[in-house]
Amino acid sequence: xxxxxxxxxxxxxxxxxxxxxxxxxxxxxxxxxxxxxxxxxxxxxxxxxxxxxxxxxxxxxxxxxxxxxxxxxxxxxxxxxxxxxxxxxxxxxxxxxxxxxxxxxxxxxxxxxxxxxxxxxxxxxxxxxxxxxxxxxxxxxxxxxxxxxxxxxxxxxxxxxxxxxxxxxxxxxxxxxxxxxxxxxxxxxxxxxxxxxxxxxxxxxxxxxxxxxxxxxxxxxxxxxxxxxxxxxxxxxxxxxxxxxxxxxxxxxxxxxxxxxxxxxxxxxxxxxxxxxxxxxxxxxxxxxxxxxxxxxxxxxxxxxxxxxxxxxxxxxxxxxxxxxxxxxxxxxxxxxxxxxxxxxxxxxxxxxxxxxxxxxxxxxxxxxxxxxxxxxxxxxxxxxxxxxxxxxxxxxxxxxxxxxxxxxxxxxxxxxxxxxxxxxxxxxxxxxxxxxxxxxxxxxxxxxxxxxxxxxxxxxxxxxxxxxxxxxxxxxxxxxxxxxxxxxxxxxxxxxxxxxxxxxxxxxxxxxxxxxxxxxxxxxxxxxxxxxxxxxxxxxxxxxxxxxxxxxxxxxxxxxxxxxxxxxxxxxxxxxxxxxxxxxxxxxxxx
Length: 592
Ligand code: ASP
Description:
By secondary structure, the protein is α+β, with helices and mostly antiparallel strands. It has three domains: about 10-105, CATH 2.40.50.140; about 140-270 and about 475-495 and about 530-575, BirA Bifunctional Protein, domain 2, CATH 3.30.930; about 295-420, Gyrase A, domain 2 (2-Layer Sandwich), CATH 3.30.1360. It is about 30% helix and about 25% strand. The chain has 17 helices and 22 strands. The protein has helices spanning about 60-65, 125-130, 130-135, 140-160, 200-210, 245-265, 280-285, 305, 310-320, 340-350, 375-385, 400-420, 465, 495-505, 510-525, 540-545, 575-580; strands at about 20-35, 40-45, 50-55, 75-85, 95-105, 165, 185, 195, 215-220, 235-245, 275-280, 300, 325-330, 355-360, 365-370, 395-400, 430-435, 440, 445-450, 475-480, 485-490, 530-540. The strands form five sheets. It has an eight-stranded mixed beta sheet, sandwiched between helices. The chain has a five-stranded mixed beta barrel with strand order 1-2-3-5-4. A five-stranded antiparallel beta sheet has the order 12-13-16-14-15. The longest helix has 23 residues, at about 140-160. Aspartic acid binds near residues 177, 199, 201 and 491.
């Protein structure tokens, strides 16, 4: 191998001020070309790109060697920084070039399968297959550095605020966070499995019982669930827990953290205290428990206005205790065609909605999909309910509340996106508080915990546990929402073993299950558990939001694809029979 030329500068930092200096850079050949007697090569490292010229005084053997350079050769170059003849305004180093005196070729490269340029449009899977090449892109390196700086801000903030960073086990017992577990078989305990933590929830609560008082961890979590653009099977949380606090104390610390994070990472001043919406308000006004407040388009309940109308779809819904709600997409009448609306109808069907009613208010007339059932006067009265003016488009949906909320919540965001209203550089943060404690699961035919079963019901609602009025029970749970994403969530915890036991029972866990799954946990609460609560931020999501992207894979060095596979290493893989034998495991694919 050619000798190592020790770096004096990163490529991207050289400027006018360096003219006349002898420098050494190390990196990869971005591109090279010959022009008369001169060879030009752009050398790239994690900081950026600099132009090197071979000729103009470069020793002949070095020029000769430069002739063999190709894209992605890994090289070292020593030379003198000179002013460029033709400047490149677009490049930060575009004023200068290095006139080479020495060249080392550390490694040659085959023709790379992907372009190593920020603006390539290669398919996601190919980028992931050659992730190590993809990572050479300056934008990817900037992202990794950004994320690393975030770790620093996080650790500094929490350390300064009296939090102790503690690692909790990865080989653990299942923690219910609503997803499936990744299981790890134990060789020395045949037939038994660890679960990778869906979160360090129980450990952090046990740390509070253990007297830690304030805990933080940048924790890897694992959840086996269907993937979306903002989800990965393994992801990172900023996980924390505090003792002797109430919800306001926890929120105050987290707001101070977010303020610092936005300031240090983006130079943005976040105004605190952040607004808070109750879960009921969020759902009724925005159709979502993670509302995007960068735009309006609020939901309006029109049940009262249409309860006696002649349109049966509405009157029937109301009679059955369902909802009739709509949104005034102001100024949008001309912006969406009949065809667009037909597509919207199709998309809301995926949420269980049967259809959509549309009303267009024009200067002299009101058009709608229900003209047969409503007179112009009735339509005008409806428009008034929405505060509609000429040029507005109203969309209305009826049905069970969860259907109406999710359909309209979806339309709100979808239309805002189509209208270009989602500015990634604008940040709207809020807390959603007062979540219901339970939600009914059709699939499981039982109530499940909306946050997790360790969340404390509101004190004044505990009485409904006895009467079985579970829908009336709200929890001391809160989510931090940023631009329509749940960036974090937490709760005040139950610290009374009896109440914890009751909650497990309400969730229809048998006595046996409670003992085997949570016995150790319930026992711990018999020995002086402090009141406590906490929260976890999704670190990847925060990073994604701060960088203004909506693809979580951009901010993770080696992410999984939509099928939870690492296309580069091809994990997961089959394993050797011997390994299975050691684990007493037999594979039975036939049954599936
Ligand atoms: N363990 C919870 C979660 O992962 C966060 C918390 O309640 O602190 O969502």
